[in-house]
Protein: Microbody (Peroxisome) proliferation protein peroxin 11B (Eurofung)
Amino acid sequence: MAQTPASSGFSPLKSLVIYTSQTSGLEKTLRLIQATSQVVGVTTASKALATQCLTARDQLALTRRYFRLLDFYGCFERVHFLINTPSSTGTILSVMELAQYTFLGLYLLLEDLTILHDMGVARVDWYHPLMTEANKFWFYALMLSVIRCTWELFFPSAPVTPSKTSSSGSEKSKARGQQPQPSPPKWPLVKRIIIDGCDLTLPGSFLGWTPVTSLQIGLGMVLSTVLAGHDVWAAQQ
Structure:
C-alpha cells in the first residue's frame, strides 16, 4: 500500500521566500530594512557604519518608489468609485474618505514627477517646492485616515440587515425582522491608527510640523512596517 508522504513542517526560509515573492511583501521587507538602517545609522558611534547605513537607507527609499510609481491611479479610481456609489457609513465618513484618497493620489502623482531628480538623471530647480506640496498632501491624507478610524472606533456605524419576510407581512413585523449586525472588531481600526500615526512623522518631519528626531522616525517606521507587514504575511502564508 502506498504511503502518503508526511507533510513538511514550518520552514521560516520558505515562508520568507513566499512573502518576498509578492510585490507587497517585498516592499514591506525593504521598508523594514530601510527603517532599521536609519535606526542603526543614527545610534552607532562608528562614523563609517553610520555612513553606510544612511546610504543604504536612501537607496532603499528610492528603490521602494518604483513599487508605487503608478499607485496614484488606484487612489483616483477609489475616488471615482466613492463619488458614484452611495455610502452606507454616513456623510462625514464618506467625505473624509473621499478627501483622504484625493490627497494621497495627489501626493503620489507629485512624487512621481521628482523621481528623475532623485535618480540623478535630471536635476530640477522646483524639486523642493514640489516635494513640500506633495508631503503636505501626504500629511493631510494620513491625518484624515487617523481621524476617520478614530471616529469609527468611538462611533461605529450599525447597519441593519432585513430578515426574510412575506410580502403580506405588516410593517411592524418587518421592523422586528431587522436585526443589527454584530459590531466589527476594533483591533483593525486601532492598528490602522497606530500605523498612520507613526507614518505621520515622515511628512511631518519633512515639513517641520512634527518635532521628532531621526531615531524616533526610524522606530516609528519599524513599528508601522511590522504591523502592516503582518497582514500581508498572514494573507500569503
About this structure: The two ends are 32 Å apart (CA to CA).
